[in-house]
Specification:
By secondary structure, the chain is of the alpha+beta class. It has helices spanning about 1-10, 20-30, 85-95, 120-125, 165-170, 175-185; strands spanning about 15-20, 40, 50-55, 70-75, 100-105, 110-115, 130, 135, 135-140, 150-160, 190, 195, 205-210, 215-225, 230-235. Helix 5 crosses helix 6 (about 175-185).
Length: about 240
């Protein structure tokens, strides 16, 4: 990342490959205070999980998104069923590395994904099947990518405190002791970072992930009940 930032100062703009949310956070912490380059994250979609870190020299103006992102659409027969794993597996079968592919959106009505521009033609010409489904790849403009909205199932409950083990207990309907076990096992992530501290305070809008259980979001922290418990609203990702 230091090399990319330094190159941007000299040439105008550079970009990393696609970063995971955890990697993005690390880059943000390391480069957010630099003034010789502007740091932007772009994954094609407004709420993309996998994004490229784009470094731009402020004296060179804005970067062109099409220079760093290519959007591809997958078409297949209506009677066929195509899953996220099928698509990713087919891409990996072409010898493509995961960090060259951004988010894959498979909504049923529209299946699209984002990749590095240099792979666009290669994928279009060579990806003809995913799983057992015959497919056709075509390039679309970034403006044609769908607007992704969070689909959350909400529930309201109370907790004794905003400790991680307490929030996990309510969010995933397990005991506090079981929540502590999950944390100690290293399978609990808080805002995309593995957290091993059951007493870590969870703030509003925090993202929780437990391997094998799913993902949730602490959407709202409210007032307290007569017994001193804290009202919380938690959303579960579909």
């Amino acid at each position: 990342m230091d090399d990319l930032a330094g190159k941007a100062v000299k040439t105008g703009t550079t970009a990393s490959k696609f970063l995971t949310p955890s990697e993005r956070q690390s880059v943000e912490r390391a480069f957010s205070r630099r003034r010789d380059v502007i740091l932007t994250f772009d994954g094609g979609f407004d709420v993309a999980e996998r994004t490229r870190a784009i470094f731009t020299n402020p004296d060179w103006g804005e970067y062109s998104r099409a220079e760093f992102l290519t959007a591809l659409k997958i078409s297949y027969r209506k009677q066929d069923t195509l899953g996220h794993r099928d698509i990713l597996g087919a891409l990996m079968g072409l010898g493509i590395e995961r960090d060259t592919i951004g988010d894959i959106i498979n909504s049923g009505q529209l299946t699209v994904f984002v990749c590095l521009p240099e792979l666009g033609n290669y994928i279009t010409e060579n990806l003809t099947k995913a799983g057992r489904v015959g497919i056709e790849i075509s390039q679309i403009s970034l403006d044609e990518l769908p607007v992704i909205q969070e689909k959350l199932t909400e529930k309201t409950d109370t907790v004794a405190s905003l400790r991680l083990d307490s929030i996990l207990s309510v969010a995933f309907s397990v005991s506090r002791s079981k929540a502590a076990e999950l944390i100690a096992a290293g399978i609990v992530s808080l805002n995309h970072q593995i957290c091993l501290h059951p007493d870590k305070e969870v703030s509003e809008d925090a993202l929780l992930s437990v391997r094998g259980f799913g993902r949730a979001k602490l959407m709202e922290v409210g007032g307290t009940s007569r017994k001193g418990r804290i009202f919380v609203k938690i959303g579960f990702y579909a």
